Amino acid sequence: GYWLGEPHWGRGYATEAATAVVAAARQAGFPALRSRALSHNARSRNVLRKAGFIETGEGPDPAGINAGKPATFMRLEFEQ
């Protein structure tokens, strides 16, 4: 998960961090990554899209402080 203070929004920090995590996972040999964002949080979904994730579905967030809230599930599969 990630959270960035509002004064830092729109500067590319979250996208840079997400892209670095994706690169590290690819280098480590992970076959895929999964993520989710609250459905109303278009900015978080956009960060994940920029990192290569695609939306795979919607439903209640399964865990954590957002459990039960509408979430968008996303996935990134690496080419083998």
Fold and architecture overview:
The protein has 80 residues and is α+β, with helices and mostly antiparallel strands. The chain has 2 helices and 3 strands; from the N terminus they run αβαββ. The chain has helices spanning 13-28, 42-50, and strands spanning 32-38, 54-60, 70-77. A 3-stranded antiparallel β-sheet has the order 1-3-2, with helices on one face. The radius of gyration is 13 Å and the shape is globular. The model has no long low-confidence stretch (mean pLDDT 95).
Short structural description:
With 80 residues, the protein is an alpha+beta fold.
Distance between the termini: 26 Å
Spatially, the strands of the biggest sheet line up as: 1-3-2
Helix content: 25-40%
Q: What general form does the structure show?
A: globular
Biggest sheet statistics: 3 strands, antiparallel
User: Mean of the pLDDT scores?
Assistant: 95
What structural category arises from helix and sheet content? alpha+beta
Unreliably modeled segments: none
Task: Please provide the count of β strands.
Answer: 3
In angstroms, what is the radius of gyration? 13 Å
What is the string of SSEs from the N terminus onward?
A: HEHEE
How many H/I helical runs? 2
Strand content: 25-35%
